[in-house]
Fold this protein.
Amino acid sequence: MLPHDTYMLRCLQLARNGRGAVAPNPMVGAVLVHGDRIIGEGWHRRFGGVHAEVECLESVREEDKPLIAEATLYVSLEPCAHFGKTPPCADLVIRHAIPRVVVGCRDPFPLVAGKGIEKLRAAGVDVTVGILEGECRALNSAFFTFHTEKRPFITLKWAQSADGQVAGLHGRRAAISGALSARLTHRLRATHAGILVGTNTALFDDPELSTRHWPGAQPLRIVLDRRRRLPVGLRLFSGDLPTLVLNEGKNERHHGLEYVHLDGFGSPGFAERIVQTLHARGLQSLLVEGGAQLLQCFIDSGLWDETLVLTNTALRVGSGIPAPQFSGGVLLHSRVLGTDRADTYRKAEGSLGRMR
């Protein structure tokens, strides 16, 4: 393995420590190398906190500080060049007279988007770009999708029986997945900005849509309620967590809920309209948990990036509501969770999914 790759892998390893804590900012790791020795490391720990480059330089021991001006800085994402919640990291690099910077990938955020690299090069810094670029982009897939595709990164999730049913007849609730799968689902929720369910799922399952089985951030709860017919006693309407209700009525706040007008329920392009509405609100990632009709709507529109299918291999429901049908997925991994099998798919390259 080339030295550049080795140190960039370390940047990625550090960056992952910020998962679930830095959004909507990207996860970033930084490593400062002198000769063949790492003299500083850092990562972006929390939204609004110092960036990876700052923490990396602050971690350098006093006796190693004279080596900074002879070192190489590795960073998984292009150093920023604008004032946000913190000063520009490109200016910090220049101020410390770091002669070489190796960047994993460019930042798609319009206020950066190559400007950090340009600023460094204009100051005489030797900049190398594109080391493990695919891995660096994949780490922040939601961030990149939001800024390049102009939509949230979309994950679909459902649980099905061994005979491919997601519920009993007439939407009757069926306990399909087990406790380990529930923890996996809650971990998935904690890594998404929003979680969406349809009217029937809210009505028949009465889900809380929380992350109570996994430590982490609580996503925005989003429910479709076209004519606002869902009863106010549902757990979604408890008011204890932020909840968005997409409906055909007017925009208003009522009983701690935010109602947002949305046109075209059930018509072609409905999934696109949902996604456009959520992108306009700044949601970088969306978890769609059902039901089958809503999931199929996203699948048919090509609007998904990953899919988690939980199959209880020991349960047969018989007649019921069939699971969604989808294609164009590449199996990333499969794991066994008790009697459940958890299959995660990534959308194949070239499949539909870009906003029209």
